[in-house]
Design a protein that fits this description.
With about 120 residues, the chain is of the alpha/beta class. The protein is built from three helices and eight strands. A five-stranded mixed β-sheet has the order 5-4-8-6-7, covered by helices on one side. The chain has a three-stranded antiparallel β-sheet with strand order 1-2-3, covered by helices on one side. InterPro entries: MTH938-like_sf (IPR036748), NDUFAF3/AAMDC (IPR007523). Pfam families: DUF498 (PF04430).
C-alpha cells in the first residue's frame, strides 16, 4: 500500500470555538467563505435567522464541486428554493453545524478536493 501525505490547503482551519475560527494563524470572528483554492471572503451574515437566498446565490459562481454550509451552533437547513442556483450548476451543498463544517473542510481540502466552506459565525 502506498501512503502519500495529505495536501494542506492555503487556508487550513487550525482551531475553532464559539463565535470564532482560526484560519492558519489568523483568528476570525465574523462569517466567511473559505475555499481550498485560496479563496477567503467575508460573508455578510451574523445570525441564521437573517440569511436569505441572496447569501447563497453567489456561491454558485465559485464553481466548487461541493459547498459546506456551516449553519452556526447547531444544524439548521435553509429553504430548498434558496439553493436553486447551486442545483442549476450541479454543485452539491452539505449542511452541518459550523464546527463540523470546519472539520469536514479540512479533510476534503487536504484530499485536494475543490471545496468551499460558507461558515456562519454567530455573534448573538
Amino acid at each position: 500500500m502506498k501512503f502519500q501525505p495529505d495536501r494542506h490547503s492555503i487556508h487550513s482551519i487550525t482551531g475553532y470555538g464559539p463565535g470564532w475560527i482560526n484560519v492558519g494563524p489568523d483568528k476570525v470572528t465574523s462569517s466567511l467563505i473559505l475555499g481550498a483554492n485560496g479563496l477567503r471572503l467575508p460573508w455578510d451574515c451574523t445570525r441564521f435567522e437573517d440569511l436569505t437566498a441572496a447569501h447563497f446565490a453567489p456561491l454558485a459562481e465559485l464553481e466548487a464541486e461541493l459547498i459546506l454550509f456551516g449553519s452556526g451552533v447547531r444544524n439548521r437547513f435553509v429553504p430548498p428554493a434558496w439553493l436553486q442556483p447551486l442545483m442549476a450548476r450541479r454543485i452539491g451543498l452539505e449542511t452541518m453545524d459550523t464546527q463540523a463544517a470546519c472539520r469536514t473542510y479540512n479533510i476534503l481540502a487536504g484530499e485536494g478536493r475543490n471545496v468551499v466552506a460558507a461558515l456562519l459565525l454567530e455573534t448573538a
